[in-house]
Write a structure and sequence with these properties.
alpha/beta
Length: 270
């Protein structure tokens, strides 16, 4: 007689490699607790996890000539060209090279941060600016963007806390749709570089989270983490899939009637 539970009978996912990038200055914060929960849960599920805690690392947030050690000091700093030369030559500053190695190593990247002024904390924006160099995340020497680009095959998940209530981020909410606020990350970073972004996980009313509410949020986050490699990603259109013209504009009539804004660039679900 088979005495195994349904969970034990279910095929177990292959071990995956996951990079968690965390950005909050206080290790006692809600964001730190969510990072710790995600890391523990993923490791318990058999996955290998690396963490980049940007504040603990004292991550340098600004791009400057020090990022490219071979750049001549008497020449103007053209960041895109300088970063591409340094990337292809293996001559980036060591901290950037180490983070790029983590991204290459990963099967999925999770960004954990509080929403500040409708964006990421500056330290996380600086991680993005410095790590996703030309020749690594984009550029003429890599596949085209908005497709299976240089980082294709990876999953990406945003886990974010917001002080506002959920209704304020609705289609008629004063802050705008949450998907629109996160479009620069979801479409402009992840999908641009080929990573498949999942629907974001959000904790609203984050300044007033009771123990009971946090327990509920952990249950919801556990479900999202369990679906990291099985949930359907946001169905963004590919640049090379026939939906865009040579001018990189969406062709007329491709979208369902009434679609507008950022929603134009995703296939309708269902």
């Amino acid at each position: 007689m088979n005495t195994a539970t349904p969970q034990q009978n279910r095929p177990q996912p292959r071990q995956k490699k996951i990079l968690v990038v965390s950005a909050h200055p206080d290790p006692r914060s809600l964001n730190a607790a969510l990072t710790g929960f995600a890391v523990d849960h993923l490791r318990a599920a058999g996955h290998e996890v690396r963490v980049s805690d940007l504040y603990a690392m004292k991550w340098k947030a600004v791009v400057d000539a020090d990022d490219f050690p071979d750049h001549p000091g008497d020449q103007r700093l053209d960041v895109m060209n300088a970063s591409e030369r340094a990337t292809l030559a293996g001559r980036l500053s060591p901290d950037i090279a180490a983070e790029q190695e983590k991204v290459r190593w990963s099967d999925a990247v999770i960004l954990q941060f509080p929403m500040w002024w409708f964006s990421t904390p500056a330290i996380l924006k600086g991680w993005i600016d410095r790590v996703f160099t030309s020749g690594f995340g984009y550029g003429p020497a890599v596949p085209p963007p908005y497709s299976e680009s240089t980082l294709g095959g990876r999953r990406a998940l945003v886990s974010v806390t917001a002080g506002a209530r959920e209704s304020a981020f609705s289609d008629r909410g004063i802050h705008g749709r949450f998907a629109d606020v996160l479009h620069p990350l979801q479409h402009g970073l992840f999908w641009f570089t080929g990573m498949a972004p999942l629907e974001p996980f959000a904790v609203y009313d984050a300044n007033e989270v009771s123990e009971e509410a946090f327990a509920a949020q952990k249950r919801a986050y556990r479900q999202r983490l369990d679906g990291l490699f099985t949930d359907e990603p946001v169905p963004y259109r590919t640049l090379v899939g026939g939906d865009y013209g040579r001018d990189m504009r969406l062709l007329p009539g491709v979208e369902p009637q009434g679609t507008s804004g950022f929603a134009l660039h995703a296939h309708p679900r269902g």
